[in-house]
Structures are given as structure tokens and as C-alpha cells.
Amino acid sequence: MDDASPQEPRWLSEEEMESWLALTSVLIRLSAALDGQLQRDAGISHFEYQVMAMLSMSEEQAVRMSELAALSDGSLSRLSHVVKRLEKRGWVRRAPDPADGRYTLAILTVEGWKKVVATAPGHVEAVRRYVFDPLTKAQVRHLRDIGRRISLAIDPDETCLGGR
């Protein structure tokens, strides 16, 4: 039997606990607020919007499904379900990648582009109101740096950041 005792957990300090609780509150409440705004104003979820927005920002408005999953911070399985819903609404279509038929492209349709264009102003206003308006310019830079550091701790290979 090994004499080594189990390592004592590294408990959070009082300041760390306050910071953690503030962050978890933001994660839960911001997600719900953005989802609510998009559902109310555009009839889509935040994840659906994120998928279409990522497609709209790509050069040809077409991205491999595996890459789109990383760009939209979702699993390939979740993305497949969402793309199927978006296809039914005529906003996205799927096609084999002409460069390599083993991959499938998600392609934003003209109607999908119109939906993103119509939805973006309200979404950007909500993001501005909930995230950027309460912060100073220095705090925005800190938020960016903190977000990047946490993302890299979660995913050192930066697959979640999708090259952002």
C-alpha cells in the first residue's frame, strides 16, 4: 500500500469564491438574456444565431461542419441538429466539400443571409447593453484577456477559439 496521502483540495479563497460566483452568475444570466432577446425578436436561439453569424463572416459563407462546430463553440452533434432545423427554415444548406468529399459544408443561403442581417442589429444592441456599456475601455481589454486565458486553460490547442 502506498504511504502517500491524497492531496488536499485547493479550496478557493474568499476573494476567489466571490469572483467564481460572479462569473457563474454572468455565464447563466447572460446566456439566458441573449437567448431571450433573440427568441423574442427573431424567433431563433442564441446558438442558431451564432451558427449563422459564423457562416456569414466566412469568406464564401460556407464552412466545414467540423470547423463550424469549433467556431460556434458547440459539439458536432449539437451543430448537426441545429443545422437540420436551419435547413428546414431555408437558412442553411449542406453539401459535400468540393475540395474533399469526406467533409460536409454548411452553407448560408440568401434567405439565411437576410435573416442574419435583420437579426444582427438587435443582437448587437443587447450585447452592447449587457456587456460593453457597463464597462470602461480598460475593463473591456481585461475582459478580452481574461476570456482568452480561461479559454486557453480549457483548450490549450485553441480548437474552441477557432483561430479567433
Automatic annotation (TrEMBL):
GO terms for molecular function: DNA binding; DNA-binding transcription factor activity. The lineage of its organism: Bacteria, Bacillati, Actinomycetota, Actinomycetes, Streptosporangiales. Keywords: DNA-binding. SUPFAM superfamilies: Winged helix' DNA-binding domain (SSF46785). GO terms for biological process: response to stress. SMART domains: HTH_MARR. PROSITE patterns: HTH_MARR_2 (PS50995). It comes from Nonomuraea polychroma. Residues 20-152 form the HTH marR-type domain. InterPro entries: HTH_MarR-typ, MarR/SlyA-like, WH-like_DNA-bd_sf, WH_DNA-bd_sf. This is DNA-binding MarR family transcriptional regulator.
